[in-house]
Specification:
The complex is a heterodimer of chains A (about 325) and B (about 350). Chain A contains ten helices and no strands. Chain A is mainly α and about 325 residues long. In chain A, helix 2 runs parallel beside helix 5, helix 5 packs across helix 7 and helix 9 packs antiparallel against helix 10.
Chain lengths: ~325, ~350
């Protein structure tokens, strides 16, 4: 409110301005405080309601709920071991397949790829992230599962199935649907996440470092192995953990191809279930209180698993920072 | 192909429900539950809408879900292929009555074996679902099918993953056949399956069997026909080979003694009779005795009365067995219990 005639600011105007600014500042302060608090409140609220609704199940079955395999709605006996096992195994399969491929794509894009191809390939990988998970589920069920049953799984059973020790992972009948197929679908789903993070951190390697290495006569492999990966180790861990978090919680795509059976089997070909698939499948039919409560307890366990993964990631990154 | 069909059907269903919502009549009848009865409910709903202008909004979410929703009063009626016991009905103030009967059929996807070519008996089906028989050319199956060339392929067992009345009747049949099954697995809308893949809903089982080479599953007959899948003939309690058809379902249903059963609690699996289909099942409608919305309950009962009377052609076209007229009279008499302010909400005459 400057008075234009004199070009001076009246004292009262200045007071008004400063008061308004103080108000604005206070409002801003509390709004941002509120936003931050809301996140924490929502998190605590979710945790609280999960614990509350899961209590009946834990009261009925105790801690053994976590390592009991039996899941029998008819008899009202519930145990979380099979879904926990399925969640971890499918995620591990996804990581074993997905991480090397993602690194490969990222190395190709940053080190080897001819310039004109860089953008199309990069966009193609990022588009993978835009496909809704239900589409991955349909694709897995209608396209991938028959191929797995007719081609991939018989091949694995006939080759790796005979290797002592390792063979047990590839034994049994080719169902098409099962942990391996779910892992493959998950691997495709986490590719874009790991790839884009990896590519971005690879690009942060100073050109001078890279060029010096090449100048010393290093091969591309040696540059990647001794310069780029050590330099970007931190970001790589972050990217991998991001992918793992996504794989652990994925619901729809997995529900289609996991086989929905509450059993622990050594063979990767066997049908199984995951925590989120079990919840999605059975929640509407859970007719008794203890059934619903057991499903909520599963959700709570998933909450802890993903929380631990994130915590581990932070810790690893923190440790890496010290070097 | 089936993928495109599924999407097209989904889109059609969405459009249909949208148009229902558009018509937005307070009088639309809401129900949920059994997917066993869904194909015929869909046809009846269409015909009833044409005849009266009142639509049926039925969610085929499985019997378990139907029981849950009607108990919670989110729908006017529930439908279940597993009858509720006296205690549950009394505790929740509900009544049940049979709506339709039909057959559960073993469906399969085995290359080179035509629909109806295979013959199975209860003991063999039990062993397959127990995990004791794992190959299609197992001696036990071969003994029943001397002239069929069975492949040396693994059997992929498919069952329901959700709470299902079809599962209840199927496991009830296996429990009658085998003590081992009754002791180890038992009979309910969801059980602890020894082997196999779980699929959601009747539609899910049909799709999974269709999609998986060497698969076997159990399903309501209409889903087998609609999906053009292979189905087996069965050996019944009298040791006769029977084909799934309206006649054999009706022969099994004819044994049901509705008048002598409290709350219409009759299971019709493994019935005697030369022509009886061994895995026959009924669907019950469950409704509150003192309905929250008496007008809606009356509309629902009016629809059921209409279906008992006029629904025979639709039921027959889908190979369901309509409830016989003398039983309908009993049912409609039982509706006197469904009251509001001491007066029945609707009486058929």
């Amino acid at each position: 409110m400057t008075s234009e005639a004199t070009g001076e600011t009246k004292f009262s105007d200045r007071v008004a301005i400063s008061r308004r600014m103080r108000l604005q500042d206070a409002a801003f302060f509390w709004i941002s405080w509120g936003s931050a608090a809301a996140v924490v409140l929502v998190l605590l609220g979710v945790l609280g309601s999960l614990v509350w609704d899961a209590l009946p199940a834990f009261r009925a079955f105790g801690l053994p709920f976590v390592w009991t395999e039996q899941w029998n709605p008819a008899k009202g006996q519930f145990g979380a071991a099979a879904p926990i096992f399925g969640t971890l195994v499918t995620s591990i399969v996804a990581m074993v397949i997905g991480v090397p491929i993602s690194f490969g794509i990222a190395v190709f894009l940053t080190e080897i790829c001819p310039k004109p191809l860089r953008r199309p390939i990069g966009i193609a990988v990022e588009l993978l992230a835009g496909i809704p998970s239900i589409i991955y589920g349909l694709w897995g069920f209608f396209v991938l599962a028959p191929v797995m049953q007719r081609v991939v799984q018989p091949f694995l059973i006939n080759t790796l199935g005979d290797v002592p020790g390792l063979g047990i992972l590839f034994s049994g009948a080719p169902y098409g649907i099962g942990m391996l197929t779910a892992g493959v679908v998950l691997a495709v789903m986490i590719l874009p996440f790991i790839t884009s993070v990896t590519r971005d951190v690879f690009n942060t390697v100073p050109v001078m470092l890279r060029e010096s290495a090449y100048g010393m006569g290093m091969t591309t492999w040696e540059v990647v192995r001794y310069i780029i990966i050590p330099y970007t180790r931190l970001g790589l861990v972050g990217g991998v953990m991001l992918g793992l978090g996504r794989a652990l919680g994925e619901t729809m795509a997995v529900t289609f191809v996991i086989g929905n059976s509450h059993r622990i089997s050594a063979s990767l070909m066997a049908p199984a279930t995951t925590i989120s698939a079990a919840i999605a499948n059975e929640f509407t039919e859970a007719t008794t209180g203890i059934y619903t409560s057991s499903l909520v307890a599963l959700g709570l366990i998933l909450f802890f698993i993903t929380f631990s993964v994130l915590a581990l990631a932070k810790w690893l990154i923190g440790r890496a920072e010290k070097f | 192909m089936s993928f495109i069909k599924t999407i097209a059907m989904g889109a059609a269903a969405a459009a249909f429900s949208l148009s229902l919502a558009g018509a937005a009549q307070a009088a639309d009848i809401s129900g949920a539950g059994s997917s066993f009865i869904y194909p015929v409910f869909a046809k009846w709903g269409e015909a009833y809408k044409k005849a009266t202008g009142i639509g049926l909004n039925y969610q085929s979410i499985g019997s378990g879900g139907g029981i849950k929703q009607v108990t919670a009063k989110t729908v006017t009626f529930g439908a279940s292929d597993k009858p509720l016991d006296d205690k549950y009905l009394t505790d929740n103030g509900m009544v049940q009555f049979p709506m339709i009967q039909g057959g559960i059929v073993m469906m399969y996807n085995v290359k080179g074996i035509k629909p109806g070519e295979l013959v199975l008996d209860g003991a063999t089906v039990e062993k397959i679902y127990m995990g004791d028989i794992t190959k299609w050319n197992d001696p036990a199956i071969q003994a029943l099918n001397k002239d069929v060339k069975l492949p040396n392929e693994p059997i992929v067992v498919v069952h329901r993953s959700d709470g299902s009345g079809t599962t209840f009747n199927f496991t009830n049949y296996l429990s009658k056949i085998s003590k081992d099954w009754a002791d180890k697995v038992g009979s309910d809308t969801a059980v602890e399956w020894p082997v196999g893949l779980g699929a959601k809903g009747s539609e899910g089982v049909a799709n999974t069997v269709k999609q998986t080479a060497g698969a076997i599953g159990y399903n309501e007959y209409a889903y087998v026909i609609q999906n053009k899948l292979g189905y087996s003939r069965m050996i019944n309690k009298d040791g006769k080979i029977v084909s799934p058809s309206l006649d054999t379902f009706a022969a099994a249903a004819a044994n049901a003694d509705w008048a002598g059963a409290k709350n219409f609690h009759v299971i019709i699996t493994d019935q005697p009779g030369a022509k009886s289909w061994p895995i026959a099942a009924s669907t019950w409608v469950i409704i509150h005795k003192d309905p929250q919305d008496p007008a809606a309950a009356a509309e629902a009962l009016k629809f059921f009365a209409w279906a008992y009377k006029n629904g025979h052609p639709e039921a027959k076209a889908l190979d369901y067995v309509a409830i016989p007229d003398n039983v309908v009279a009993l049912i409609e008499k039982s509706w006197g219990e469904i009251q509001h302010d001491g007066k029945p909400v609707y009486m058929a005459n």
